[in-house]
Task: structure prediction
Amino acid sequence: VLRRGIGPTLSFAAGAAAARAAAQILGAEAPVELKWPNDLLLDGRKAAGILVESAGAGATRVAVLGIGVNLNVDPAEFPEEFRRRATSLAASAGRPVDRVGFAATLYGTLEDALDRHERGGFEAIRSEFETFFRMRGRRVGVHEVTAGAGAQGVEGRVLGVASDGALRNERDDGVEERVLAGDVTIAKETPA
Result:
């Protein structure tokens, strides 16, 4: 049972922990990146995903955290529709990754990040999260699901992440919007 810190930013603590573990295994120069709200990317391709489910209220509120990491999968083994968008740590490293060693590293980074998040919320892990969050300033497409309106798509430029976990996005018309849930696609940047 977690008494504090359950909410939309818990996945950011887990993401920061997974990114730190991947960087420790792959090396400091590895292209590890976090994509809002719950993906870990290597060279722009998905290598891990994070899912948090929570239930209850007050002191009995609990969360189940799932982190799925592609460790030693050859990208050629992914289904055709995922091959250009997915990768694994082994593909990035150019060598197999020790599963037990990675799990131990991940558990250590996760324990640390969750403890800090429980004590101080998102602000306690923000700097580590932002080390790997490279979406700021990038052009994105956002397909947000809103109550009663279905999915709505809008394009814009990422301003950052608010303290409550909302993605701050500046639409093309200059209006800032806060996205609480949805699918974000990073647009391909065209050279100037």
About this structure: The longest helix spans residues 99-132. The chain has a mean pLDDT of 87.
